[in-house]
Amino acid sequence: MRRFALIFLGMSLLLAPGLSVCAAADTEPNCNIQEESCTQTVGGRTVELDITPKPVKAMEELTFRVSVTGDDLKKPPHIDLGMPAMEMGPNQVTMKKVSDSVYKGTGVIVRCPSGKTIWEAEVTIPGAGQASFIFDVVY
Fold it and tell me: Hey, CA dihedral for 134, 125, 22, 53, is it positive or negative?
C-alpha cells in the first residue's frame, strides 16, 4: 500500500501544472538561430524568425523579429516560447508592426534547471496557421 502511495505521489508531482522539470523530449532543432534567421512556410506565406542578440542566451532580454510575406495581416503575429513536448506555462512575445511585413517584440527564454537547452518558438500567424521553430540556446 505504501509503495502505491509513493508511486501515486510521484506521478501527481510530474503531472501537476506549473511543476515542470524541463524533461522535454529529445527533439532535434530545425532552426540554427545561433547563426542565422530561420524560415518556414505557413498557409502559403513565408515566415522568417530571427532573434538577437547572438548568441541567443537564456535569462536575457531578446528581440524577436518576424517577417511575413503576402498581404497585410489583420492582426500581428505572436510567439509562444516553450520546450518541445513540454508544458512550460505561458511565455508569450507580443509583436508590434515596424514595417509592411516586419514585426518585432521582446521576451526572455528562461533557464531550465535540468540543463536542457532545446527551446521552441511557435509563431502564430492569424488566419494562416503556426510555424514551429526549434533551436538551441546558450546557458
Answer: positive
